[in-house]
Design goal:
Length: 352
């Protein structure tokens, strides 16, 4: 049983869910959450547990400043990463996702960490774009394709750093998570709002893999306990078309779903236009070319390896995930509304 656990990105969407389940699984373990900045806790019990330490203003690019937190760590979950699909963020993506990961890997090796669980993405594997044959861990990475997608490339290169260390003896395992949803995810709020307002006119024709964050966390803990050194494991739920996902979201929200779906042929016309608009825009667009282009692909993945090797299976349906998301969304909006009315006379900066 781990005694001292470090979670990078510990205050993020995944980090808080992970810490909550680690609390339950290892109630006597000390858990240190490292994060770049203070964030709202949608799991407030994390702040009151005496076994949990929260450290902010963390810069993973500054190895010396973070080293003290790794000196006693026997277990490390490296969940921190920069996620961006804007081409102008390429330099920052490479710095944060590759150099930051290398620093974590080096510190784990230096201080004898017993297990590093590196949280990667399905994006790091690429995709085969086949509707009926999901990608698995045996896929050959397409370097030519990856040159167009900076996030994909940064995560794959970071994985190579972890694998190189594993080859030299570092106990490390790699989790390739598919798109996560679940309660606590605030980044999806604009999509809920647009869907409720009828501002999602059509469905994109492709598809992608989704997993509930709570199932993903169970997979990470299974990797800690059973994952083979240096190996990748796809931790993924179901594979769904964009149309199916929009229908499930709309049903959970109680609004009509987009009725029309673009054909694949529209991609040849629209993707270059979106790409041109992004290249000349000084600001990040709401929908980047990378995100839009992926909407015309099938990014389906198989979790059979995790099932057979770890005894892990996703248990939460897409419908339940979105129902829980909507409940969190509505409760968050209610809290924000109350805070807003209170903040009229507040000058202490606590209410924004």
């Amino acid at each position: 049983m781990p005694k001292n656990i470090v979670v990078t990105g510990g205050l993020g969407f995944l980090g808080q869910h992970l810490t909550h389940q680690l609390q339950q699984r290892y109630p006597d373990s000390a858990i240190t959450l490292l994060d770049r900045s203070q964030r709202d806790l949608f799991m407030p019990d994390l702040a009151t547990d005496p076994n949990i330490s929260i450290v902010t203003d963390i810069d993973l690019l500054d190895s010396k400043s973070i080293e003290p937190y790794f000196e006693q760590a026997d277990t490390v979950f490296h969940t921190a990463a920069m996620i961006s699909f804007w081409r102008k963020d390429k330099k920052q993506l490479f710095e944060n996702n590759i150099t930051g990961t290398q620093n974590v890997v080096d510190l784990c090796g230096k201080h004898g960490t017993e297990k590093l669980v590196y949280v990667s993405s399905t994006a790091a594997m690429g995709y085969n774009n086949l509707k009926h044959i999901p990608t698995d861990e045996a896929v050959i990475f397409d370097w030519k394709k990856a040159k167009k997608f900076s996030y994909m490339l940064s995560k794959h290169l970071a994985e190579l750093r972890v694998k190189a260390a594993a080859d030299l003896g570092l106990p490390a395992v790699i989790a390739n998570l598919s798109t996560m949803n679940g309660p606590g995810d605030t980044k999806i709020f604009p999509l809920w709002e647009n869907l409720a307002a009828g501002k999602v006119p059509v469905n994109l024709p492709g598809g992608f893999a989704i997993i509930d964050v709570r199932d993903a966390v169970r997979g990470l803990i299974a990797l800690l306990e059973k994952g083979a050194n240096g190996e990748n494991y796809l931790i993924t739920g179901g594979n769904y078309s964009y149309r199916h996902v929009m229908q499930a979201m709309a049903e959970a929200l109680g609004v009509p779903a987009p009725a029309k779906t673009l054909s694949m042929g529209w991609g040849r016309l629209l993707v270059p236009i979106v790409s041109l608009q992004e290249s000349i825009s000084p600001r990040q667009p709401k929908i980047t070319n990378e995100i839009f282009a992926m909407g015309f692909k099938y990014r389906y993945y198989s979790g059979k390896k995790a099932s057979s090797r770890l005894g892990w299976e996703p248990t939460i349906t897409l419908e339940q995930t979105f129902q829980d998301c909507v409940e969190f969304y509505k409760s968050s909006k209610a809290v924000a509304s109350g805070a807003s009315s209170t903040s009229v006379t507040s000058d202490d900066g606590d209410f924004k």
